[in-house]
Structure to design on (232 residues):
């Protein structure tokens, strides 16, 4: 086989192999922002926002004197067993009730027959993969251009500009944690949603337990082998 024939055969093989790989390539979403919950104050901000939505919906739908009751995510407070509540459940419940009272919404301490029930659900999401947040599009180009402008500047100014560019890069390039939470609040009247709101937040990995029930301790079954030192 001539050299040209071998080259032609290789080109055909490469073309066929490349054709087999013609699948949609993964691409990221357009740059967006997502808030991160890191303090109880952030829970209060969420509670105020949800209370405002509830108040607005009740006014718009003319539930002006209808009482509401905020229910713990595990059910009625007096039936929540040990470990069924968790820090966010307790904190958000109290903060939401306080905000509703401030808005003048008739809020009840116990469930009444004619009261609308405010339910909230917390879903903790764990992402096993390491997720990186890189520079926003155009940031690196702008930083580079800024440094180039100073190319003839004194060393001190150039060092200061470079340091500022590094700070900006570090501020916009982070490694995201593995956890997110979805918090959904709703009111249902006669099997019909009259208000429903969902919010998604990043959380610190070490704080995930704030948003879910504690796992029960494992139970160990003792057998005779555990008593090898017992007397006859």
């Amino acid at each position: 086989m001539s050299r040209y024939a071998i080259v032609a055969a290789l080109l055909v093989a490469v073309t066929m192999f490349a054709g087999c790989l013609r699948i949609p390539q993964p691409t990221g979403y357009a740059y967006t922002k997502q808030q991160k919950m890191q303090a109880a104050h952030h829970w209060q901000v969420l509670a105020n926002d949800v209370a405002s939505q509830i108040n607005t919906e009740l006014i718009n739908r003319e539930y002006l004197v209808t009482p509401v009751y905020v229910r713990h995510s595990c059910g009625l407070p007096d039936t929540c067993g040990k470990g069924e509540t968790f820090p966010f459940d307790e904190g958000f419940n109290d903060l939401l009730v306080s905000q509703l009272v401030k808005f003048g919404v008739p809020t009840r301490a116990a469930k009444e027959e004619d009261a609308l029930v405010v339910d909230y659900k917390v879903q903790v999401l764990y992402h096993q993969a390491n997720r990186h947040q890189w520079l926003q599009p155009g940031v690196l180009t702008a930083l580079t251009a800024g440094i180039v402008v100073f190319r003839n500047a004194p060393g001190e100014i150039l060092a200061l500009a470079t340091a500022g560019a590094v700070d900006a890069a570090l501020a916009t390039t982070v490694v995201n944690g593995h956890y997110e939470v979805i918090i959904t609040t709703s009111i249902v009247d006669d099997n019909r949603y009259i208000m429903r709101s969902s919010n998604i937040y990043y959380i610190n990995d070490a704080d995930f337990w704030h948003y879910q029930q504690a796992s029960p301790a494992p139970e160990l079954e003792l057998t005779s082998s555990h008593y090898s030192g017992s007397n006859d």
Remarks:
- Residues 135-172 form one domain.
- The chain has two domains: 33-124+179-214, 135-172.
